[in-house]
Amino acid sequence: MARAGLTVDKIVQAAAELADEGGIENVSVSALARRFGVRDASLYSHIRNLADLRRRVALRAGDEQAERIAEAVAGRAGRDALVAFANAFRDYAREHPGRYAAMQIPVERDAAEGSRGVEVTVAMMRAYDLPDPDLTDAVRLLRSTFHGFISLEASGAFGHPRDVQKSWEKALEALHQLLLAWPRETPAGSPDGR
């Protein structure tokens, strides 16, 4: 009976919840089967294998985080958009640690899937008017800064008595100032680019 109600969406949602409870590395087909009260084989008619399941969790988490960020930055620009973006990014990671960890697994999207996260990020960065490759470099800096801070915070590595929230706010202000003064790459062949 339980098998009749299984769908890919329900399975991926349960896997995402399981990841948040015990870590993405502990998500298994057997654990999900136990959660649904079915045999492992019942899940394989909906997913290919464990890698496929984890890929789906990663994609869902990326979409969830992107939607949260899009809502946070709507109607904002510049510093306000950057702060809203960063806070939504961090809040999602704190509230859904297993899903956030799944997002760090390199996965490829089908061409039809697109990437809402990329769209939202590029839109937030418009106010800084950075052409590529500067835009790519700046986005990589933001992502690595946010991820590093979030990872260190989650592991309890910030032992100094300084309020962690104050450090976060200072980091965001520093990133905003850096983006405003970004050292632009001079294209080859231009008078200064030789």
UniProtKB/TrEMBL annotation:
Alphabetical list of Pfam families matching this protein: TetR_C_33, TetR_N
Transport: present as a keyword of the record? no
Going by the UniProt record, its keywords in alphabetical order are: DNA-binding, Transcription, Transcription regulation
Q: Which InterPro entries match?
A: Homeodomain-like_sf, HTH-type_TetR-like_transc_reg, HTH_TetR, MT1864/Rv1816-like_C, Tet_transcr_reg_TetR-rel_C_sf
Query: Per the database entry, where does the chain bind DNA?
Result: 28-47
**Cross-referenced SUPFAM superfamilies, in alphabetical order?**
Homeodomain-like, Tetracyclin repressor-like, C-terminal domain
The HTH tetR-type domain is annotated at 5-65
PROSITE patterns in the cross-refs: HTH_TETR_2
Q: Does the keyword Transcription apply?
A: yes
Q: Which PANTHER family match?
A: HTH-TYPE TRANSCRIPTIONAL REGULATOR RUTR, TRANSCRIPTIONAL REGULATORY PROTEIN
- Protein known as: TetR/AcrR family transcriptional regulator
